[in-house]
Amino acid sequence: MTPTNQNQPTFNWRERLKNAYAIHNVITLRPELPVYLIQWDKKKQVQEGEKLLDWMDLGEPNNLMLRPQHFESYYGKDHVRDQHYMEALKVADETDAVVIREIYGTCDLFQPLPREDSSVRAFIHAGHFLLRSPEWDSISRSWREMTGQEPASANRDFVHYVRMLLNLPVFDEPEMLQALKEFFVLYAEYLTVGHDDVLLRGKVDELNSNAFARFWPIRDWVDSIISPNKFLPPPWHFVGKLTDWMKVGIGIDALPTTAMALMPLDSQKEMLDPVRTLLRNASIQRECIKFAREMPETAATNLQDYGVSIITSSKKGKSRARARLELRERAQKFKDFVAEKFGVNAVVGIGRSLSPGAPLHESHQDAVLALHMCVQLEKDILFHDEHGGAEQFRYAQLQQAADELLEALNRESSTALKLACDRYVQFVLRYSNQRVETVRGQFLATLFQMFNTVQRRNPMRKEARHTFINDLTLRIEETRSMDQLIESFNESLQRLSFVSTKAWRGPSVMLLEATLQYLRENYFEPLPLPDVARKAGFSVPVFTRVFKQATGTSYLNYLRTIRIEHAKKLLSTTMLTLEQIAQACGFNSQHHLIRSFKKVTGHTPGSFRKNHSGPSAEI
C-alpha cells in the first residue's frame, strides 16, 4: 500500500460529489444557457499581439442551436463581439466582481475566479440571455444595428434571428438575476477552494428551490412526459416516484395524469404580421409557464411556436364527474389569465386521464386534437371525448381536411391556416400510418392543388411559375425524415400564404418570389436593376418599393450579400485568386470584391481567408 501523506490536506470526496451534483442540477438540466471557463493569458497577448482566450465547456451546450454570435459573424461583426468580451473581462479583472454586459440586446455574465498570477486570469462565462422579454421594437433596433437592414417578416434571415432570440432564457425578475449572480459566485468557489464545503451545496439548493425553480423551470422534463418517443422515459421512470428535486424542478408534488393544450386565437378580421404574432405567442407561453407554477399540481411547456402544453392531475379520491369538473375549472383559469393579461381569447383542449405516472403522449395527442376541434365546433374548452375524435378514420376525412386547408389559405387568417394545417397533417399521418413516402406524396399533391388555385387567381408567366413551384417543392422531394418532411411542408405552406395574401397584391409578390430565386441562382451574371425589374414585370420604382417591403433591404444590398456569401465559401474552401473569385461571384473586378466584402463583413477578403481557411472553418 502507498502510505498516506499526513501533511496533505484531506477532503470528503462524498461531499465534493454532492456539491458537484447540486451545481449539475442547475447547469446541465438547463442547456439553453451555455457555461464556459475562459482563461485569459495577458502576457502572451502583449507578446504576440493577440487576444488569447482559451475556452472550455462546463455544461452540455447544444452546438446545433443558433446563437447571437452566429448572426454577428455572418454580418461581419466578429470584431464587435471580441471587443465586447475583452472589455467585460477587463472590468471583471479589475473589480473582482461579477459583470453582466449587453451587446445587440443579448447579455453575457462574467464571474472572475481567484487570481492565479499577474498574467493569467480565469473567468466563468454564461451566455447568452435576455433581461427583458423580446419585443418588436427592441429586436428591430438590434437587427438594424447589427445588419443595417430594416426588419421585415418576409426576410428569412430576420425570422431566423427572431426565433433564435425566443430560444434564449429571459431573466426579467430581479430575484432571478440576483440568484444567478450568487450562483456563479458559489460556482467559482466550488471550482477553486470550496470542494467539500457542506454549506456550499445547501446554498446552491436554496437558490435552485427559491429562484431557479420559480423563474427558470426545467421544461425538458415536461417535454419528456408528453414526448411521442416511447424510448424516452419520464424523469421518475427509474425511481418510480417524484423525488424532492424533481418536485422542485417541475413544480408538482403528485404524478400527473392529464394533458391539456392551450392556444390563443387571432381575430379573423385583423391582418397580423407573422413575426409580431410569433412574439405575442412567445410572451403568452412564458407567462402561462409561470402561471402554471401557481396552480396546484400543474406544469407547462411550449406547444411548438403557437400554444402551451400543460400537464396536471385532479385531487385523489374524486369521482370521474368531479375530476372532470376540476380539470375544466383549471382550463378556465388559464383562459381567464390569457384574456386578462393579453386581451386575447384562447381555447383549451383536455386529453384523457391516465394512471398516475404513465407517459402522457396519448393524453397530449387527445388534447391537441380537441384544441383544434374547439375552433371547428366554436367551443372554448373541449374534452377529448366531446367531439367524436375516436371514430374510425375515413379517407374522405383527409380530403375534407385538404379542402379546409385551401379554404384557410384563401381566408388569409394565420390562426385558421395553422389549425387547418395541423388537422390536415394529423389526417395524413393517420392515413399513411406514418410511412414517409406516402406522406411525401400527399404533401406534394396538396401543394400542387393549392398552388394551381392561387395561380388561377393571380396568373404568373410560365418561366416564373416553373421556378416558383420547383423552389416550393424541392425540400419536400429531397428530405428523408418525417420531422423534416413536416417542417418542409409547413415552410412551403407559409410561402404560399405569403405570396397569395391580398395585402401584397398577389401577382406582384409571386413575381418577386420568382425573381429572388432567380437572383440566388444567377448571382454570378451581370444583373443591372432595370433589366431585373423589367424581367420581373415591374417598373424600376415599383420594383424598388416592393423589393424593400418584402426583404427589408434594397436590391443592390440583397444582391451584394448573396455574392459575398458565395465569395466566403470560395475563400475558405479554395485557393482561387481574388480576381478569379470576383469573376465567379459576379463582381466587376478584384477591387470591387474587396470594397464590397469589407462593407458587408468588416474584413478584407485576405484576412477572412486567413481566419477561416482549413477543414474546420465555419462560415
What does this structure look like?
Helix 11 (274-294) packs across helix 12, helix 14 (395-411) packs antiparallel against helix 15 and helix 22 crosses helix 24 (590-601). It is built from 25 helices and ten strands. The chain has a five-stranded antiparallel sheet with strand order 2-1-5-4-3, with helices on both faces. The model is unreliable at 502-506 and 614-619 (pLDDT under 50). The chain has four domains: 13-215, no CATH class; 219-383, 2-Layer Sandwich (Alpha-Beta Plaits), CATH 3.30.70; 395-521, no CATH class; 557-612, Orthogonal Bundle (Arc Repressor Mutant, subunit A), CATH 1.10.10. With 619 residues, the protein is of the alpha+beta class.
Question: Quick summary of this structure?
Answer:
This protein has 619 residues and is of the alpha+beta class. The protein contains 25 helices and ten strands.
- Give me the count of strands: 10
Pairing-aware structural class of the strands and helices? alpha+beta
Q: Average the pLDDT over all residues and give the rounded result.
A: 83
Q: What is the CA-based Rg, rounded?
A: 28 Å
Q: Which residue ranges are poorly predicted, with pLDDT under 50 across at least 5 consecutive positions?
A: 502-506, 614-619
Overall spatial form: flat
- Span from first to last CA? 55 Å
- Helical residue percent? 55-70%
How many structural domains?
4
Largest pleated sheet: 5 strands, antiparallel
Main-sheet strand order equals 2-1-5-4-3
How many helical stretches?
25
- Strand-residue proportion: 5-15%
